[in-house]
Amino acid sequence: EPASLAQALGKRLPFGAAVTAAQLRDPAVAAFIAHQFGMLVAENAMKQESLSRGEGRYDFADADAIVDFARQRSMPVRGHALVWHHQAANWMFTDGAGEVSRATLVARLERYIADVVGHFRGRVFAWDVVNEAFQFDEPDAQTDAAGMRMSTWRRIIGPEFIAIAFRAAAKADPDALLFYNDYESQNPKKVAAMRGLVRDLRADGVRIDGIGHQMHCGRVWPKLADVADAIDALAAEGLRQHVTELDIALNDTLTGSAVQAATPELLQAQAQRYAELVNLLLSRRDKVSALLVWGIADAYSWLLGWPQPRFEAPLLFDTRLQPKPAYHAVLAAARAA
Ligand code: G3I
After folding, report:
1. Which of 39, 84, 219, 256 measures 20 to 30 Å from 165, CA to CA?
2. What are its E.C. numbers (predicted)?
């Protein structure tokens, strides 16, 4: 059996993965997960669309299965994500008369967060309260002057939807760590926006504890120096940081996949990049206190299917759950640290 990465990284960098309830129902896959990972996050099961069945109605079955599995093995659980523009509980936005008023949407969101965070109170140690509220990567995208995405939340409630969400989460579980989570979090514009957000929230007496760096990387993007700068800049705000969704694609663009098969050279380059990134995180372990990969193995990566099929083989284990060169590189980095 390949050595456990969670054990090798140990307390220096708590290591976990995004999982699904279906994976845990398969005994062989469940055993693999329990061996390799020390922290879990639900890839989809704790999103609004998965949990919400209407006002005050919930389906917690898959999310509870993941939390129970983790707790039986003393693995901390991250909660992902309370408010996002994708996979929202779309019933919240309308009623019989059409689009709801601001007051109604605020009340529905507050109730949702109170119920969900309350349900998992004491069992989820950190929440991604708001996911991907800013965006600077698509020039044509609808954003406000601050770069805030014109999601339905932002449009109906205004930028205060973020403060409302953090307040509600803090009230529902005073002990859970509250994170803002985003992709491209090394982009200086996004770093500045996140720092501004944190300062505004704190000036209003709203608690925010950390920033989640998604880190869906390509083979050469982003530059590690930019990642290092972002971590240092955010640490200066007194924030905890987690790398929440790491994967390293074999390609570099979001459109079209030139690479259709994994060659030994590509897998080696990917392995080196994984090692460089893990080394960077280990060198900043006073600032970054968790690393999670977004999927347990290449067979289960989101990139295979969403938003369009892509071949990227972006994870540490292959389609048969066997270790890839990237696994060996991370293991070596962990052991050398
Ligand atoms: O489960 C349904 C199935 O019943 C249905 O037949 C099928 C048809 O579309 O869809 C299935 O749901 C899909 C779900 O993944 C489970 O596979 C959704 O359509 C699909 O949209 C969803 O994609 C997820 C994606 O977020 C979309 O929101 C990915 O699994 C998930 O990995 C991805 O995760 C996000 C993070 O939450 C935030 N950061 C980026 C990251 C990657 O996109």
Report:
1. 39
2. 3.2.1.8
Q: How far is the CA of 43 from the centre of ligand 1 (A)?
A: 8
Indicate the helix (H) or strand (E) that contains 283: helix 264-283
Is ipTM beyond 0.95?
A: no
pLDDT tens for each residue of 264-291:
999 999 999 999 999 999 999 999 999 9
Output Rg (C-alpha) for the chain, integer angstroms.
Answer: 19
- Give dist(CA 16, CA 6) in Å, integer: 7
CATH 1.10.10.10 fits 5-245+289-296, yes or no: no
Annotated active-site residue 276? The verdict is no
Pair of tokens at residue 179 = 């994170």
**94 close to ligand 1 (CB < 6 Angstrom):** no
Rounded CA gap, 113 and 59, in Å? 14
Residues 6+ apart with CB under 8 A from 190: 134, 136, 147, 182, 184
**Is 237 annotated in the active site?**
no
Neighbouring-strand partners of residue 212: 181, 242
* Catalytic pick among 132, 160, 184, 265: 132
Ligand 1 close to Cβ of residue 308 (< 6 A)? no
Question: Residue 90 to residues 5, 50, 93: CA-CA distances in angstroms?
Answer: 39, 11, 6
Nearest ligand 1 atom to alpha carbon 47? 37
Candidate from 134, 306, 315 with most ligand 1 atoms within 8 A of CB, to mutate: 306
State pLDDT tens for residues 113-140.
999 999 999 999 999 999 999 999 887 7
**Does ligand 1 come within 6 angstroms of the Cβ of 49?**
no
Give rounded-to-5 percent helix, strand, coil for the chain: 45, 20, 40
The predicted model scores a pTM of 0.97
Domain edges within the chain: 5-245+289-296
